[in-house]
Backbone:
């Protein structure tokens, strides 16, 4: 009898202990949150795809609310989605995103108002300058106007520069001339007086392109038009992160009196079909097994490079925490990353802090550890 009681107590005690332990474990993982750990430094963001915005991906939803206090729509606010016909707008998903932001206290960075890629077909086919001007004006007024005060910020113009720092040869440059960037900000400022306005691009940490971006920003400022920040996309390779150029860019951009953001951070680990880094969504190369070396898992040595890359970057971001406003990862976890499909379709890449099972990777631990 006594023995039995002890047994029962023993079992109850073990149950209580293990329950407590699993609670504690849950708390530990709950407490280790990028947004919490970095809350005094800068916002921590993620890109969200349609399924995540609609909360159809339950594993992602857990991480989204736990880890991030900023989010950028990966595709659903681009003009081909939100403005599919001359007089037709599709606000459904963007409205859902705004609601999600409210629910989880996540600041929304809307992306991207004026961009030459992912344009609707009817815009790409426009021949006369007047029609392009009309689309440009209607689009900014309607879309930026609707979300003023509902989103925190806009990437007003995305990717207006070539690698050498000159203006990109886009439909907007061709039809509207080089002042179109200033005009986009002017219209956005009128339509969205309560929203921060940013210029966003890739490789603008590189000296020539950076000089082009600085000239562009100075031109906007000289016209008396508001620009609040610049977004460096940050699609880099883990083995080749331009830390010196990134540091110099933070210094030079912030000297213009604007915030610096890292807006689409991911560190690819796969071979690059071309020399140098680019993030032009229109580039494409052919698949071969040689170009997809880690389909069955990432070797420890490459994982270590990725971890070190993130550690170095966040050390730098922390050094300039007064100037860096936000660091946004381009996706929640590795399976969502656009780098599985770009520039070569069908590859397995590992560029983010959470793996395909939504588990934190060593790179996550390294980024957290910097704050301990
Ligand atoms: C990418 C998305 O991640 C993909 O899903 C889409 O197919 C193409 O665009 N620079 C940008 C982002 O500003 O909008 C791009 O996003 C990645 C490069």
Residues:
């Amino acid at each position: 009898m006594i023995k039995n009681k002890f047994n029962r107590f023993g079992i109850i005690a073990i149950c209580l202990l293990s329950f407590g332990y699993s609670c504690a474990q849950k708390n530990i993982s709950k407490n280790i949150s990028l947004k919490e750990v970095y809350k005094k430094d800068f916002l921590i963001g993620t890109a969200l795809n349609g399924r995540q915005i609609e909360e159809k991906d339950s594993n992602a939803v857990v991480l989204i609310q736990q880890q991030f206090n900023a989010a950028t729509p990966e595709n659903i606010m681009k003009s081909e989605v939100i403005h599919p016909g001359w007089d037709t707008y599709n606000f459904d998903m963007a409205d859902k995103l705004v609601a999600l932001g409210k629910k989880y206290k996540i600041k929304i960075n809307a992306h991207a108002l004026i961009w030459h890629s992912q344009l609707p077909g009817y815009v790409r086919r426009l021949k006369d300058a007047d029609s392009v001007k009309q689309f440009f004006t209607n689009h900014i007024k309607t879309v930026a106007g609707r979300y003023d005060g509902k989103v925190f910020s806009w990437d007003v113009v995305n990717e207006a520069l070539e690698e050498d720092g000159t203006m990109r040869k886009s439909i907007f440059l061709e039809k509207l001339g080089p002042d179109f960037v200033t005009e986009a900000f002017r219209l956005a400022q009128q339509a969205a007086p309560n929203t921060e306005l940013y210029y966003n691009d890739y490789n603008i940490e590189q000296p020539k392109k950076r000089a082009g971006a600085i000239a562009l920003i100075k031109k906007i400022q000289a016209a008396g038009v508001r620009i609040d920040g610049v977004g460096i996309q940050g699609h880099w390779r883990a083995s080749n992160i331009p830390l010196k150029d990134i540091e110099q860019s933070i210094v030079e951009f912030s000297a213009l009196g604007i915030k610096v953001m890292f807006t689409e951070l991911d560190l690819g680990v796969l071979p690059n079909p071309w020399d140098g880094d680019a993030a032009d969504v229109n580039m494409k190369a052919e698949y071969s097994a040689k170009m997809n070396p880690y389909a069955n898992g990432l070797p420890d040595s490459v994982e270590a490079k990725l971890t070190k890359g993130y550690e170095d970057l966040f050390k730098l971001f922390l050094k300039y925490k007064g100037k860096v406003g936000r660091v946004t990862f381009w996706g929640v976890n590795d399976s969502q990353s656009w780098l599985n499909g770009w520039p070569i379709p069908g590859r397995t890449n590992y560029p983010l802090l959470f793996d395909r099972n939504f588990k934190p990777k060593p790179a996550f631990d390294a980024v957290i550890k910097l704050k301990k």
